[in-house]
Structure to design on (88 residues):
């Protein structure tokens, strides 16, 4: 697979939207750069429902890669889910 962060981000986005951990595992198998591996790990934490870890990892990731829209989306979704759970 071409080492393209947009390609990996798109695959991660599809896996998260489908809530498909097996698909995310396959993406993780082809993620070559630290940036891509970070995106995959943030998505894994999100699918596990670990909002605190998502927040911490996403903040660090976005410092280095502020253009990472998928990570920003995952982080915002994790916050919204955590707020809903707090109010349930």
């Amino acid at each position: 697979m071409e080492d393209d962060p947009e390609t990996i981000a798109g695959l991660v986005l599809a896996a998260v939207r489908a809530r498909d951990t097996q698909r995310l595992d396959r993406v993780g198998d082809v993620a070559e750069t630290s940036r891509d591996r970070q995106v995959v790990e943030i998505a894994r934490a999100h699918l596990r429902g670990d909002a605190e870890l998502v927040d911490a990892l996403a903040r660090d990731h976005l410092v280095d890669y502020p253009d990472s829209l998928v990570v920003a989306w995952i982080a915002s979704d994790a916050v919204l889910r955590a707020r809903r759970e707090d109010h349930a």
Observations:
- The radius of gyration is 12 Å.
- Helices lie at 5-18, 21-30, 34-48, 51-64, 69-86.
